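Example record for the data management plan.
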Amino acid sequence: MIDRETLVRRHTVEITRPDPATVLTVGNGDFAYTADITGMQTFAAFHDQAAARAQGRLAVNTATMSTWGWHAMPNPEGFVLADAMSTYETSRGPVPYPDRFDMAATMGGGEVARELRAGTWLHVNPHRLDLGRIGLVLRPEPGAPAESDPAALVDPRQRLDLWTGTLTSVFTYAGHEVRVTTVADPRHARVAFRVESDLLATGRAAVAVRFPYASDGFFDTSDWSAPDRHTTTLRPLDEHACRFGRILDDTTYATRLDWSEGEVNATAEPHTFELTTSAGVLELVATFAPGGVLGRGEFTTIEGAAISWWREFWTSGAAVDFAGSTDPRAAELERRVVLSQYLTAVNCSGSMPPQETGLITNSWQGKFHLEMHFWHAAHFAAWGRPELLERSLGWYLSILDVARGTARRQRYEGARWPKHVGPDGRESPSDIGSLLIWQQPHLLYLLELLHRCGRTSLVARFAELVEETAAFMASFVEERHGTFHLPALLVPAQEFYDARSTEDPTFELAYWWWGLEIAQRWRDRLGRERNEDWRRIQDNLARPHQRDGRYSAIATEPYLRRDDHPSMLCALGVVPATPLIDPAVMEATLLDVRDHWDWNSAWGWDFPVMAMTATRLGRPDLAVDALLTGTAKNRCLATGHSPQIGSILPLYLPANGALLTAVSLMTAGWDGADTDCPGFPRDGSWTVRHEGFQVWP
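Corresponding structural encoding:
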C-alpha cells in the first residue's frame, strides 16, 4: 500500500513572500475562501486583478465565493433571449440563434442598438458574487491608518497542509509575531480563523469585514465604488455573535459572525465593520447563506471537521506515487498531481458545474462553460471518487426543460445543452457559444464513468436525460446519399473556423459515435431495445477527413489551423477506439502535431489531450513529454495554479482536471489494455506505484 500521508505531505505548499498572483484557497466545492499571505483577505488592493492587468502583471483577487451566490444588474428594459437573436439560413429553414452582443454597445436607440444592448445584458448577467472580504487590520500604532503594503510584513511564512486542509500563516509586523490559522467547513459556506498576536490587545490589530457591490466585469468579483447601490444591516445576536443582512438589487443573503471575545462596530467606511478584542487570541467564524437560519459556528468544531474530511479524501479513491523514479521530471509530475487533486476538490466538486477559475476568482463573469465540465470533473470517477462528480450532474435535470426549449427553437428533437451559462440554464448570447456542439456528449460520458464506478442507481434517475441528449444528437446529423454528416452551422472544439461552412470535425464525429453508443448501452440497462435510428447513424457516420495521411480538424476548407486546440487528437484518446478512427492515421497526426503545432497558443488541457492520445497509441514516451511540455500555458505555480499567459487567466482549472484525467488513463489503462501503466515508459526510468484507479472505456 502507498503511504498516502507521506505522499501528500511531501507536497505541502509553502509560501515565503507576498506575490499578487499567489493566493491559497480553502473550501468544499460549493464554497471557498481565498487568502493572501496573511491567511486572510488583508491586502485586497495588492491582489486587484484589474489594476494588475493595466500594468501587464498577473494577479488573483482574494474573494469569498459560492455556487449559490449570484447577482443580476437591474433590467428595466425587460431584455429576454429572443431580443438577442440573429436568423441563420439552414437546411431546416431559417433558425434564430442568440449571437448578438457587443461589450462596447452604446445605449442609443434603434432596433439594432436594442439587440446589442439586450445581448450584452444577457451575456454578463447573472454574475457570481464576492460574498465579502474578511481581513486583518494592521496598524503601526493604535489609531493610525491601516497598513496597505504587504512589504511591511517581516519573515512571512505560509503553509497549506493539504492532508488536513489547514492554512497556517505566520509573520512579524511592527516587531510582533502574528499567527493565523484558516480552515473551511467541509459541508457549509463557513470559514473559521484563529488569530494569535499581542497586537490584538494593544489595538494595533483587528479584523475587518467588508462587503462590496457586485461587478459584471469579465474578470471582476467586486465593485467597491458603488456604496449607494447595496445595503448592509448589522444586527447583534448576542455578545459574541452578529448577523449582517445583505441586499443587492434582487439578491439577498446573510452573513453571521461568531467570535470568542470582543465586539463588532461599524466604521466610517460604508459596508465595513471592525471586530476588536482585548484578548491575545481571537477565534472567528463567518457563515454565509442565501436565507434561513444561520447556525452558530465554533473554530475547533470546524477545524476538526476539516481535518477529518480531508483525511478521508486522501485515504479514499486512487493514489499514484512516483518515488524511486530516475526521470528527473517525476517529482514535478507528482507535485502537480497532488495539488490538482486538492484544487479540483475545493473548486470543481460542487452542486453545479464550475467556472474555469473555480471559486477562487471570476472569469467570464463567473459563469460556467459546459464544454469544460468534462475536464473539471471526469477525473473524480477515474480516481475512485465518483460522489464528487455526481454532485453536479443533478443540475442538468434542473435545466432539462430549458435545454428542450433550445432544441425546439432550433427545430431539433431532444435537449441541446448550452455552452456559456449561469445557474438558471439560460444561454449567454455568443456567436461561438450558441453554435458549439462538443459539450453535448459530455453528460453521457460522465454518466458512463459513474456507472463504471458502480453507480447503477443512476440508470433510472438519468434515463430521460440520456434519451433526450441522444435524441438531439440524432436529429442534429444530416443524411446525404446514405452518409450522416455533422453539418453547418456548428463551431468545433477548435473554435476559430467559420460556423457557416464548417462540417464534420474529426473529434466531434468520433464523439457523436461514442455518445450514441453510451445512450444505446443505457437502453440495454433499462431492458429496452436499442434505437434503430441511432444504430443507422452510428454505422453510417462520415469518416473524418484526411490530408497527406493525417486527420484534419474539419472536413471543409481550410481543414486545419495549427494553433489553439489540436482537437482532432481527442478522437482517439479522450474518446476510446471507435470504427471511425484509424490508429495508424492518428499516430501520424499525433507526430505532426507534436512537431508543427504552435504550442504557445495551446491551452492547459491540450497537453493532457496529447498525452491521452499517445497513451492509447502505445507511445508512453510522448505521453510524459506532452504532460510536462515547457510552454507558458503549461506552467504550474507553487500554488498548483496554471496561469494561461496571453489570455490573462491567472489560473485555469481545466488544466488541473485534464492532468488528472490523463494520469489516470496513463496509469489504469482501458478495457482490453494488456499493459500496466501504459502511459509511462518501460525503460526503467519510471517507478509507478498506484492503487484505486478505475479502468477507462
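Summary line stored alongside the record: The chain has a mean pLDDT of 96.
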